[in-house]
């Protein structure tokens, strides 16, 4: 159970960081929110790909759910920024 939580945090960090790197412009969010949105994006992306019939019959690293997780995390970060509003620094 502990390793599952640790791996979810690590994957969330990777997915969230990649999502922020691929997004244009500057995102003014912290590391913790990046991890949280990355974890949620990864979980929703994996769930969505399996609901659409994805099957990793060859085993190994599941690339498609990872990529979909990054796309979902990008959407979540954009939604978070839209809801929170961007603070204009003077």
Task: Report on the architecture of this protein.
The chain is built from three helices and no strands. The protein is mostly helical and 90 residues long. The chain has one domain. α1 crosses α3. The longest helix has 22 residues. The protein is globular.
Helical content (DSSP H or I, runs of 4+): over 70%
Return residue spans where pLDDT drops below 50 for at least 5 consecutive residues. none
Distance between the termini: 46 Å
Question: What is the SS-derived class?
Answer: mainly alpha
* Order of helical and strand elements: HHH
Note the beta-strand portion.
Answer: under 5%
Can you summarize this structure?
The chain is mostly helical and 90 residues long.
List the helices and strands and how they pair.
Blueprint: H1 2-22, H2 31-51, H3 63-84
């Amino acid at each position: 159970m502990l390793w599952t939580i640790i791996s979810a945090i690590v994957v969330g960090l990777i997915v969230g960081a990649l999502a922020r790197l691929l997004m244009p412009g500057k995102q003014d969010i912290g590391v913790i929110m990046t991890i949280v949105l990355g974890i949620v994006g990864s979980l929703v992306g994996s769930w969505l790909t399996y609901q659409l019939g994805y099957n990793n019959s060859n085993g190994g690293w599941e690339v498609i759910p990872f990529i979909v997780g990054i796309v979902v995390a990008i959407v979540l970060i954009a939604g978070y920024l839209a809801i929170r509003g961007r603070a204009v620094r003077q």
